[in-house]
Amino acid sequence: MRQLLATTAQRAAAYLEGLEQRLVRPETEAVAALAAFDDPLPFGPTPPEAVLAMLDEIGSPATMAMAGPRFFGFVTGGSLPAALAANWLAGAWDQNSSFYHVAPATARLEQVALRWLLDLFGLPETCSGAFVTGATMANFTALAAARHAVLAQAGWNVEADGLFGAPPITVVVSQEVHPTLVKSLGLLGLGRSRLLRVPVDGQGRMRADALPKLTGPAIVCVQAGNVNTGAFDPTGAICQQAHADGAWVHVDGAFGLWAAGAPSLSHLADGIQQADSWATDAHKWLNVPYDSGLALVRDAMALPAAMAVTAEYLPSDSARRNPADYTPELSRRGRGVEVWAALRELGRLGLAEMIERCCRHARRFAAGLSAAGYAVLNDVVLNQVLVSFGDAETTRRVIDGIQMDGTCWCGSTVWQGHTAMRISVSSWATSEEDVERSLAAILRIAGSMTPRNP
Ligand SMILES: *Cc1c(COP(=O)(O)O)cnc(C)c1O
Question: What is the pLDDT averaged over residues 65-92?
């Protein structure tokens, strides 16, 4: 075992060091070579060293360099050193982190990480929380608590009696709602198509003045950090109106919530503290390995009411938080361990510095692209940049060219009718040099493809 783990550490280190030399995208031949995995189920055993060798030799070259400093697709942080190492050690622990008394170390670390995060986001320390796989599940988990609470208020026990015959819940989202939040609502029986969609402004922010008057059980879902523009819904104004109507306000802050932890950006998150529940990702901007998200709920009893296995949930001794009382899963890995490690490594200061640095890099991208005559389509308030290289066809060709070139990787989107390239800077590893190198590659490729290079 010792020898195997040592060799694996060598392989992993070599992989990470190799990211500097290789293309960000995997080579076409490496992807084709994945066919070598397509064996029939082996009849007999394979020595563990040989299993790892095969994984590294065939698998590693066919990966996208998401752990590296020049992957700007989606919103994808890398893995901080302590977070990756904690992931390995916690893997060795192999704790089923459902109950405190059987897995005290991971349960306690999650409890501490939760307390730190509530402090960081400026939320009451009495909130409850759940460590789940990502923002999709975090939205699902927090909205299950919302569903419980708004129906309980109407005299209905949704956990016991389900939704058949329940008072209808009005669910409000914006036209720019993240598609996974709509999926979460569908999983909860709240429907993907019966949502009220509030119009947005030019940055994708929900228009508070267009929020309808709400009656009966109601949930309003706002967004902290639009996945294209990085813009924040005016959560304070929406909370005021929605709360006056007795509605629950949920914040999807998959990456934007982290702005609350950076002094120069926290104004963007003004008002989120008034909401009733929040979802965020740790595998995005906190830079822990996949998969890791977090649901937070102000009404500390609503979350266990929705998630605890026993219907007769009683508050346990708060010093002994059972993770499984808050999560959809019973058996689960203690993924909060990596969240703890990342926060311990960075501290409040290091986290703020990392968030602010990513935003500075985004502004540099925007300035460089604008100076070259390309249209930046969003106000670069956070870590997201949307750029057009001309018409849709040209923009798509430039994006393909950039992805093939492999110096960096950026994805595409359609923003309010305009085809655009998305640059999302969310890794601790991205340096100024990486930004300059990537910008130079983007401008070189765009210049070779756009009709008139300004
Ligand atoms: C990424 C994202 C999600 C989905 O998160 P996953 O971690 O991929 O499940 C939801 N909402 C927003 C705003 C996001 O950026």
Answer: 98
- In this prediction, residue 310 has a pLDDT band, given cuts at 50, 70 and 90, of confident
Atom of ligand 1 nearest to the CA of 178: 11
Q: What is the mean pLDDT of the chain?
A: 96
Stated pTM of the model: 0.97
pLDDT, tens digit, for every residue of 341-374?
A: 999 999 999 999 999 999 999 999 999 999 999 9
**3-state secondary structure labels for all residues of the chain:** CHHHHHHHHHHHHHHHHHCCCCCCCCCHHHHHHHHHHCCCCCCCCCCHHHHHHHHHHHHHHHCCCCCCCCECCCCCCCCCHHHHHHHHHHHHHCCCCCCCCCCHHHHHHHHHHHHHHHHHHCCCCCCEEEEECCHHHHHHHHHHHHHHHHHHHCCCCHHHHCCCCCCCCEEEEECCCCHHHHHHHHHCCCCCCCCEEECECCCCCECHHHCCCCCCCEEEEEEECCCCCCCECCHHHHHHHHHHCCCEEEEECCCHHHHHHCCCCHHHHCCHHHCCEEEEECCCCCCCCCCCEEEEECCCCHHHHHHCCCCCCCCCCCCCCCHHHCCCCCCCCCCHHHHHHHHHHHHHHHHHHHHHHHHHHHHHHHHHHHHCCCEECCCCCCCEEEEECCCHHHHHHHHHHHHHHCCCECEEEEECCEEEEEEECCCCCCCHHHHHHHHHHHHHHHHHHCCCCC
| CA–centroid distance, residue 136 to ligand 1 (Å) | 6
User: What would the pLDDT profile of 174-194 be if each residue is shown by its tens digit?
Assistant: 999 999 999 999 999 999 999
| Per-residue pLDDT at 450 | 79
Whose alpha carbon is nearest atom 2 of ligand 1?
254
Q: List all residues whose CB is within 6 A of at least one atom of ligand 1.
A: 75, 134-136, 178, 180-181, 223, 225, 227, 252, 254-255, 281, 293
Q: How far is the CA of 284 from the centre of ligand 1 (A)?
A: 9
